Amino acid sequence: MNRAPATTGPRSDFATNLRYLCSYYYSASEVCRRIGINRQQFNKYLAGTARPSARNMRRICEFFGVEEFEILAPHDELRKVVQFHGVRADETYPVRALKRSLAQSDPIIRKYYGYYFAYYYSFSTPGKILKSLLLLNERGGVPGYRRIERLIDRERTARSRPGFVYKYEGIALYLRERIFLIDRERLTGNEISQSVLYPSYKNKVGLLPGLILGTAGMVSREPICARILLEYLGTYADTRARLAECGLYSPQSGKISEAIMRAIDNDIPAHDFALRALPQ
User: Fold this and answer.
1) What distance in Å separates the CA atoms of residue 122 and residue 164, rounded to the nearest whole number?
2) Is 3.30.70 the CATH classification of the domain at 107-264?
């Protein structure tokens, strides 16, 4: 004997929600063809006389660009989700995941907009500290950032020589009191890096410690992780003068403060088994 579908509780609006999502397409047959589900079985879902298997539910959710809890939610809640995100059947789930993360990013990230010096031990020049310039701001309503690295030894090379320059552009997210930075090297296009920073609870923006994960460009293929520290410069900076300070420094140069060197030291304590950012 077939059990009747639930008509109460949080799962009762599934058929209504499915019909609503299908209304964005020419016909239910088109939806079935694109998802790859039998039309006769799909009609039962629309009528509320049957429920999809876990596999078919996943295929339906991926096609419409919604989560399972959203398609099972009360109809008014699903309508709000669709009005905010739209129905995105032509997007793959990685794109949807990224857009959802952007939508969920806390607006408090605007507090951290401005220029920074970024410090970490260079991936391509062992033993040297790389000092670069980073701008965190908003473009087109989306938080993002640009970072410029100059691989020039400031202790041996005249300031007039540019050295190798790498330019990174990426997005910024503020989730659960952490800032996530994901970027791509713009000139060569062969490198993606990610940083995770965790701000202090102080009202004034100062130092942002974290970790950076990337590669040494074309030097090697191995992924590398290091501690990184961002030093806030303000909402305005003389970029030419600041870039003149960027480059490679030895820890003994006296040009990097002791506090910054402690924050980016990559030693792992004996009682730990992973590289963690150091609180400031």
Assistant:
1) 13
2) no
Interatomic CA distance for residues 70 and 61, integer angstroms: 9
| 3-class state of residue 152 by DSSP | coil
Helix (H, G, I), strand (E, B) or coil at 96: helix
Element of type H or E holding 135: strand 129-139
pLDDT tens sequence across 64-86: 888 888 899 899 888 887 776 66
Helices (H), the chain: 14-22, 28-35, 39-47, 54-64, 68-71, 75-85, 93-104, 239-245, 258-264
d(C-alpha 73, C-alpha 17), whole Å: 8
* pTM for the predicted model, two decimal places: 0.67
What is the chain's Cα-based Rg? Answer: 25
Instruction: Assign a CATH topology to domain 14-99.
Output: 434 Repressor (Amino-terminal Domain) (1.10.260)
Using DSSP, how many helices (H) and how many strands (E) does the chain show?
9, 9
Per-residue pLDDT tens over the stretch 166-217: 899 999 988 888 999 999 888 777 788 999 998 876 667 889 999 999 887 6
Beta bridge partners of 224: 214
What are the sequence ranges of the domains in the chain?
14-99, 107-264
CA–CA distance, 34 with 41 (Å, rounded to integer): 15
The residue length of the chain stands at: 280
| DSSP element (H, E) containing 210 | strand 207-214
